[in-house]
């Protein structure tokens, strides 16, 4: 029995190697077309990254049963309602994230942003947007901070919500599930893990206390921002690194229009901002829409 298993496994490997070899490489024309399309529609700059694109799509194209990139792309572009583009985007973007990433923002959030909001007489709501939320770690981290802050204070701000968006459907499915490995929650203080997660089968699932504050939606940052209300804080970290200058400054203008006067924008610490900015820089990777704009 074991021998048969071994034989079939070897045969499957050979088949895989054969298919892999027969897929061939992506033509320059196919790559260019994809790069232009993805740049226009999603803002992602793939130019000069052909081998990265090829290697990230290779196994996927084989798994979908195609024998060449050419055949695959023909199907992608021929079908008007093709669902394929989001699948391609899922494979080309990096969803790397972790809880409490870039600590300085959480410090600013707890010692400046929240105290300021709390000091505003009669304020009833707080609107936060985690734009490019990946697997949800960012949104849940800020939700946990809000819980910590408000559970110790009497407040009029009863309506506190974090909108968390991404273009990657796979990431959003995982984010909504809110289920993380033991390793992933290691970045959090132990008492937070106890307070905000339930453990089943070795996995840690975000509990209702945090979940109720976060709403996940699919949103392409290249699209018009048409959420009903403006935001007190927009968090867009480690997303704009994929965008070129123009895409980035257009997006920042849209963020600015979607920010309340006196509201904030957090960007990734490693990200360069365009020289001309509507926001005022308050600290490293922290920007503010002037209060005088009121
Ligand atoms: C590296 S992750 C950053 C996650 C989180 N913000 C953090 O800093 O840990 C970048 C995320 O941006 C998303 N993204 C890239 N381009 C996007 C676009 N055009 N619209 C919306 N999300 C996008 C990716 O799908 C990915 O989940």
Protein traits:
Rossmann fold; 3-stranded antiparallel sheet; 294 residues; 2 domains; binds S-adenosylmethionine; 10 strands; 7-stranded mixed sheet; alpha/beta; Chemotaxis Receptor Methyltransferase Cher, domain 1; disordered N terminus
Q: Number of DSSP helices? A: 12
Molecular shape: globular
Report on the biggest sheet.
7 strands, mixed
The CATH first-level class of the largest domain comes to: Alpha Beta
By CATH, the architecture of the largest domain is named: 3-Layer(aba) Sandwich
User: If you average the pLDDT, what whole number results?
Assistant: 90
Characterise this structure.
It is a single chain. Helix 6 packs across helix 7 (137-151). The model is unreliable at 1-16 (pLDDT under 50). The protein has helices at residues 2-23, 28-42, 50-63, 69-78, 84-92, 103-119, 137-151, 169-177, 182-185, 190-196, 208-211, 245-257, and strands spanning 125-131, 159-166, 179-180, 197-200, 203-206, 214-218, 231-236, 259-267, 280-283, 286-288. The strands form 2 sheets. The chain has a 7-stranded mixed β-sheet. Strands 3-5-4 form a 3-stranded antiparallel β-sheet. The protein is globular, with a radius of gyration of 22 Å. It folds into 2 domains: 2-92, Chemotaxis receptor methyltransferase CheR, N-terminal domain (Chemotaxis Receptor Methyltransferase Cher, domain 1, Orthogonal Bundle), CATH 1.10.155.10; 103-293, Vaccinia Virus protein VP39 (Rossmann fold), CATH 3.40.50.150. Strand 4 (197-200) and strand 5 (203-206) form a beta hairpin. Helices cover 47% and strands 18% of the residues. The longest helix is centred in the first third of the chain and has 22 residues, at 2-23. It has 294 residues and is of the alpha/beta class. It is built from 12 helices and 10 strands. It binds S-adenosylmethionine. S-adenosylmethionine (SAM) is lined by residues 42-44, 93-97, 101, 132, 134, 138, 166-168, 171, 220-222, 237-239, 242, 268.
């Amino acid at each position: 029995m074991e021998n048969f298993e071994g034989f079939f496994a070897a045969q499957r490997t050979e088949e895989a190697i054969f298919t892999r070899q027969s897929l061939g490489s992506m033509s320059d024309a196919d790559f260019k077309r994809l790069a232009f399309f993805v740049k226009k529609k999603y803002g992602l700059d793939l130019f000069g990254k052909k081998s990265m694109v090829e290697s990230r799509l290779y196994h996927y194209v084989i798994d979908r049963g195609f024998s060449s990139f050419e055949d695959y792309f023909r199907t992608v572009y021929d079908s008007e309602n093709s669902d394929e583009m989001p699948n391609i985007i899922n494979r080309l973007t990096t969803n790397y994230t972790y809880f409490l990433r870039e600590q300085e923002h959480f410090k600013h959030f707890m010692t400046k942003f929240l105290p300021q909001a709390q000091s505003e007489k009669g304020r009833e709501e707080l609107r936060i947007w985690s734009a490019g939320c990946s697997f949800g770690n960012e949104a849940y981290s800020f939700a946990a901070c809000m819980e910590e802050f408000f559970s110790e204070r009497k407040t009029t701000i009863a309506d506190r919500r974090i909108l968390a968006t991404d273009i990657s459907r796979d990431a959003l499915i995982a984010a909504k599930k809110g289920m993380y490995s033991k390793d992933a929650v290691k970045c959090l203080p132990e008492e937070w893990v106890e307070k905000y997660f339930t453990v089943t089968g070795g996995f840690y699932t975000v509990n209702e206390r945090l979940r109720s504050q976060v709403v996940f939606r699919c949103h392409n940052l290249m699209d018009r921002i048409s959420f009903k209300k403006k935001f007190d804080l927009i968090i867009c970290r480690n997303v704009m690194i994929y965008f070129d200058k123009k895409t980035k400054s257009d997006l920042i203008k849209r963020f600015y229009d979607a920010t309340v006067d006196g509201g904030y924008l957090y960007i990734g610490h490693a990200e360069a901002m365009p020289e001309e900015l509507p926001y005022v820089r308050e600290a490293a990777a922290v920007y503010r829409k002037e209060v005088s704009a009121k």
